[in-house]
């Protein structure tokens, strides 16, 4: 019987302690061991994944800022098409000119 009354007295003091801390700034400073353990695990996990997160961010940023192979290929294809068109114009223009060594019609 004495053990039961001792236990009830402990519960009352704990309840009184929590009631006195409710609504105060000090209430947030008291942390349960489970919460401290979870926080510690979270810190360790963050430390492990921090380099991985940094590498992922750098890869994503590099993809956004880098010029892709498709863009370079399209620019080179456009330049090549312009050069071919320029060459074709001059080739057709010069090939239709009359050669000065040939005489027009000698009938």
From TrEMBL:
InterPro entries: TRIQK
Transmembrane segments: 72-94
Location of the protein in the cell: Endoplasmic reticulum membrane
Chief localisation class: endoplasmic reticulum
Keyword terms, alphabetized: Endoplasmic reticulum, Membrane, Transmembrane, Transmembrane helix
Family of this protein: Belongs to the TRIQK family.
Protein name: Triple QxxK/R motif-containing protein
Organism: Equus asinus (Donkey)
């Amino acid at each position: 019987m004495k053990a039961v009354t001792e236990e009830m007295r402990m519960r009352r003091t704990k309840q009184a302690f929590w009631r006195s801390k409710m609504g105060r700034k000090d209430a947030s400073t008291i942390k349960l061991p489970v919460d401290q353990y979870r926080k510690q695990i979270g810190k360790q996990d963050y430390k492990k994944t921090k380099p991985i997160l940094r590498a992922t961010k750098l890869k994503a940023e590099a993809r956004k800022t880098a010029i892709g192979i498709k863009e370079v290929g399209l620019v080179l294809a456009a330049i090549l098409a312009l050069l071919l068109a320029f060459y074709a114009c001059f080739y057709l223009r010069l090939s239709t000119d009359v050669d000065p060594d040939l005489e027009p019609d000698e009938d």
